[in-house]
Amino acid sequence: MEFSNFLQSIISCRFEESMLVKFFENAFDLENVTITNVENKDGVKKGDSYLSEVNNFTVSASGKHKSDGKVVDVSLPIITKCLPKSVGWLKTFRSADFFNNECIFYNTVWKAMNQFQLEKNVKVFESIPLCISAYSDGTNDYIALENVNYKGFSQLTRSGGLDFDHAQLIMRLFARFHALGLAFKDQKPEEFQTIANALHETYFSENYRNWYSKFQINNLFPLIRDAIKQQLPESYLRRFDEVTEDDFFGKQIKSCERKGRLAVITHGDAWAPNFLLKYEGGNLMDAIMIDFQLARYASLGLDITFFLYSCTEQPMRLKYWDRLIEGYHETFVSTLKQLGSNSQLLTLEDLKEEIKLSALFGVGMSMEALAMSLLADDDVADLKGIEGEEVPLENVWVLPLLKDVQKQQRVANMLKHAIDSNFF
Question: Domain CHK kinase-like, which positions (predicted)?
């Protein structure tokens, strides 16, 4: 086909034009589809994608409506993620492991979760981009998704803290996603366990201790420690040292391994760039979540605490923390009822206890997310320029200490909130 060589040269040799033809046939109810044009667009900002190379296309096609035989022209913006072509980038960041997990999410996990809600004749959660195709073999991996920018969705910045309206919308988004998983688990436990077991832990496992813990200890903790030292009383610094010096990585492993009654399919990577928002007339209308490389079967509290600590600032947390938790619970319970499960599967007291148990994990992930999001553009690593085949992570993710007082305060206050709340 005319465009196959072009698509395969920049995405993957496994990405066939015939897949686009089939997609257009199904999505637009067409037959005799011909791809007429593929227009390449710009990629993403450096620092917003650490695990893949991203390309944007608009694909145009022509075909006949099955209903009346009329020839129509249609187009769809598509975003593709593929394995980095730089061997250093690929191996240093273990991109193939993350790609494999995200492909499992789209091809197996989300497919089953979506089918479950369709069988209920109710769509409680549709806030994920349409997946056109996803493939993983460790070499030719790619994921092709509908680019929802044309629907008015845009990405959050890496560094901004969210106000109450934004945070509430995303908390309710998580509530519907998590409730869908818990209802599935409640009503079809064996089928749910099959998809849950299909996911792989991509971050917090003893298998990856050597890959990540040196970066955490030598690069990340010094940045956080310095911010606390500059902005908070010494007692907070002592508590930070006590928590982080006692095998912090091992504690995060245990958080991910805990499979209690409130373990569901979690997003896993709840920092700002993984949410797209839609506005109409300046009013916030909708949100969707993207990027499921870190999806795991774990406590719903992991997503909540990661999101609240990485995407909100101290004044908002102090004023609205309880309201955000209550709003999440309200939406969660409503979603359970819609899906036919007992609303008592999650009481507000259960939720608060789960958040307390998950807070150490959320703070740990937020330390990394905030450190990355507050970097100046000039300090963001150029991943394409990594020299050598496999460079230690701590040599690539170099983190200069924060000099800006407001940035120091944002990092320090995250720890202050968790410590003051007796979360650890």
Answer: 143-338
